[in-house]
Each structure stands twice: as C-alpha cells, then as structure tokens.
Specification:
InterPro entries: DUF1329, TAT_signal. This is DUF1329 domain-containing protein. By secondary structure, the chain is of the alpha+beta class. The chain has a domain at 163-458: Lipoprotein localisation LolA/LolB/LppX (outer membrane lipoprotein receptor (LolB), chain A). The chain has helices at 10-21, 32-39, 53-56, 81-90, 109-117, 150-159, 442-447, 450-458, and strands at 66-67, 94-97, 123-124, 130-131, 166-176, 182-193, 213-223, 231-237, 245-250, 255-259, 289-302, 319-320, 328-329, 332-346, 354-362, 367-375, 380-390, 392-393, 396-397, 406-415, 420-427, 429-430, 434-435, 437-438. The protein has a 16-stranded mixed sheet that branches. The chain has a two-stranded antiparallel ribbon with strand order 3-4. The relative contact order is 0.16. The model has no long low-confidence stretch (mean pLDDT 93).
Length: 459
C-alpha cells in the first residue's frame, strides 16, 4: 500500500485559496519555475493527483482511453464549456496520453533557454510596453514565465506568438457548414518574423533599424483559383497601444491596398470562422483589450504534445464526429497539472461582436491551450482550441536547426451559435511548392514585404 502525503482534494483547495487571496504564483508544492530551473521538469511542483489522469479520476480513466459522450462528465471540470458540448452532443472524441514532464518538449529549445537566462529582467515602461533596463525592447524568451497578473500572461503571448524568430506555416484550411460538409477548402501560407527578442537568428536580440517593430506577419492563399494570390501583410509596431499596418493584395485589383486595421473580427475569406483577432488567442495589440483578470486556476485537459502526424507524408490528420464524420480532428490530450484562466474585454474596437474572451494557459509554459469568446449578450459564441507537438516521433524528426521543431499542429475554430467549423492543420507543403520552414532568413523576402505580396499574387 502506498500512503499519499496529500489527499485527492488537496490541489483543489490550494487553487481555490490562491484565487481567493489573489496569490498568483504557479505551483502547488513549491514555486513552479524553481522546480523547472532545478531539473527542467515541473513534476516536483505538483502532487501525484495532478500528474496523471488515472490519479485524477481515481482509476476511472487511464492513458489510451477515449473520452466520449459516455464518460465526459468524469472530466467536465477539465474542459472549457464548448469543447464539453462538442463531446457531449456532436460526437467529438479525445484520446488520453500521459502527462509530459520534460519542459523542453513543450516549447522551442532556444526560447526556453532564453526564458531561463532572462528570467526577472522584464519590466513594463511608462507606456506599458515590455522593456529591459535602459528602456530597450525585450531580449528573448518569455518575459514573465512566473506571471502574477493577467496582463503579464497576455503580454507574453502577444510578444511572441510562435516562439520562433521566424516561421512559415504551410496550412490546409477546411470550412464546414452546419450539415457537416466541407464547403470551402484552402491552401494557405502564414509567415511570422520577429525583429526584436530574437534568440537564434543573427543579429540577436534585435534586427537593426527595426527595433520599433514587434513582428512582420502575412497570410496568403495558394488555392483554390477563386482565392489564389490573395494576400495580407501586418506590420506590428512595438508599442502595444497601436494597431498594425495592414496591407493586402487582391488579384482582381492587381495592386497593393492599405486596409482598415481595426476590423479584426471578420473573416479574411468566404466560409471561414477564423479572425485575425484569434491568432494565438492574442491576435490584437495588448492594449486594444483591457480588464485582464485571472478568474480561475486548476488542472485541464489539453492537446499540448501529440499533435504531429509523422506517419502521413504531408503530416495530414484524420477526422471524426459531426453529421458526416468530418467535423473534428483526431486529437490526443493530456492532463495539464495547472491551467490559468484569464478574462479580457475588447476596449479598442467600436463594433466588436464579442464582449469578452476567456483564455486558458498552461501555467508551466504560459502557452494558450483554449479560448472561448462571448457575444454582446454574454452568451458563448466562438471557440479556438489548438494542438501542439514536438515534431519528433520515433525515427521521424523535423528540425528547426539544431533541435526538433516545436509548433502548433492543428486548430479548431468553432461558432457554436451557427454550428460552422473551421479546421486548420499545419502540413509539410502546399500548392505552389511552399513548405513549412523555421528560422530561415529567406522567409522575410519571400513572404513579408509588399514586393512579396505582389510576387505571390502574380505567381
């Protein structure tokens, strides 16, 4: 017989007391980032009940089981409300996997190394932007790995979405109607590059002459023919009170146009339920939202490590559920020992269709694992949940340079009020020879300038 030092409800009581007292530090048995700094493993910060789904459910669920409508109520407290409804009423399933202990499998290596090296150096300046001593921009990694406030948590993800200095994601998008059929199917490319806080691309940590910018980001569509060549470029100022400059190329006009940049709750293409505002749950400048509050803490189920389908030559994923068996990606989830739930409200938009958003973050990495937005009446409206992975499986491996690539693998963006679903997956390549790449300086010239938009539109 094994005697447990902490009973099953110890963690629940701890999280409730911490929230009531406004104590925001992560970890139950010890400060989380002290445990990570010691060994690269967060396990010492949590009791056994938070380190396995079998322990949490007292043996009623175990690794390898499927969560279905028949047993989802056992883990209802671990799921955001829209995902629960998808399982309960729409045939969604989740496969359970062991909890990942090694923190290096949950973020890019260089990003994590910079987080540890620069821990404690970040501060907000008088305008609320993240700086180091001397007032210069952030120098790399997560500025607030042991965040104490909601705005620190959101500042971290807004500052660096994909956690690489540069990335190009080859994407397949599928937009489904309420009847469960794919109504639109797009091949798309999404590029990101950071001019500041660089951790592996020279020059580091800043790209000279661009220290006033936070990121370059673009999206273009390579198929079908009706959308081919349509492309958009966002250039983000470092100042988080300012909207990005948004440029677009529409083949019918054969020229670059500047678009209104505050219309971030509208789809870029027909059929999609995905908005610019949704990107990484933080697609808008930090101070165009406000009233950031930590409103919940506790364990969660999330797809943080098993999303890559190495067995498919193009990394494509299988689907299930919904009226036609096409609505949901096959998804593997695991028990996250501690998630932090943050609420925020749009303040910089005159006609935002949402009144607030709730975002769940893995406390170990401050990675957003799910989001639910609410309409102006306060009813659930839209959900965004992603799956992540280290791109290493058996003998299969995709590298970001010296280390296996870490990134998102697939996403659901679901409108619960209409029943429409957008599914995205990161694949190896798309139409036109565009292939997923990471930390490649050529990404800028190929995808992140107005000249690049023209070339993509005419290519």
């Amino acid at each position: 017989m094994r005697l447990l030092r902490y009973d099953h409800d110890y963690s629940r009581r701890h999280f409730m007391k911490s929230l009531a007292r406004g104590v925001a530090g992560a970890g139950v048995l010890m400060p989380l980032w002290d445990a990570i700094a010691q060994s690269g493993d967060a396990s010492k910060a949590y009791p056994d009940e938070l380190l396995s789904i079998e322990g949490y459910t007292r043996g009623r669920l175990k690794n390898g089981d499927l969560i279905t409508a028949a047993n989802v109520d056992l883990v209802r407290d671990l799921l955001e409300p829209i995902k629960y409804q998808q399982i309960k009423t729409m045939g969604r399933r989740l496969k359970l996997a062991p909890t990942t202990g090694d923190i290096t499998r949950l973020s890019p290596w260089e990003y994590l190394e910079a987080t540890l090296r620069n821990r404690g150096k970040a501060q907000f300046d008088g305008n609320g932007n993240i700086v180091v001593d001397g007032g210069k921009p952030w120098i790399g990694g997560n500025p607030f790995p042991d965040a104490k406030t909601g705005i620190e948590i959101f500042a971290s993800i807004t500052l660096s979405w994909g956690r690489h200095d540069a990335a190009f994601y080859a994407i397949k998008e599928y937009d489904l109607g309420v009847e469960g059929d794919v109504r639109y199917n797009y091949d798309a490319g999404w590029a990101e590059m950071s001019p500041v806080a660089r951790v592996c691309m020279e020059p580091m940590p800043y790209w000279p002459a661009h220290e006033d910018k936070l990121r370059f980001q673009s999206i273009f569509f390579a198929s079908p023919d009706s959308a081919k060549g349509t492309s958009f470029l966002n250039v983000w100022p470092y100042d988080q009170h300012s909207f990005p400059d948004l440029y677009g190329y529409v083949p019918a006009f054969k020229r670059i146009r500047q678009f209104p940049t505050d219309q971030r709750f509208e789809p870029l293409i027909p059929g999609s339920t995905l908005y610019l505002s949704d990107a990484w749950t933080a697609g808008d400048p930090l101070y165009t939202w406000g009233n950031y509050q930590i409103i919940g803490r506790g364990p969660a189920l999330a797809a943080i490590s098993g999303g890559w389908n190495a067995d498919h030559p193009n990394w494509e994923h299988k689907t299930h559920g919904g009226p036609k068996g096409k609505t949901f990606w096959d998804t593997t989830v695991e028990l996250v020992p501690e998630a932090i739930l943050v609420s925020a409200e749009p303040t910089g938009f005159k006609r935002a269709p949402v009144s607030k958003k709730h975002v769940w973050f893995d406390a170990r990495t401050m990675l957003p694992i799910a989001m639910v937005t609410f309409d102006r009446r306060g009813d659930p409206y839209h959900s965004f949940d992603g799956a992540y992975a280290l791109y290493e499986s058996g003998e299969h491996r995709f590298m970001d340079g010296r280390h296996p690539y870490w990134s998102w693998a697939h996403v659901h963006a679901f409108d619960i009020q209409t029943g429409r679903m957008t599914r995205l997956e990161q694949v190896k390549s798309i139409t036109g020879g565009h292939a997923t790449a990471v930390n490649d300086p050529a990404i800028y010239d190929r995808y992140l300038t107005n000249a690049a938009l023209m070339h993509l539109g005419n290519g």
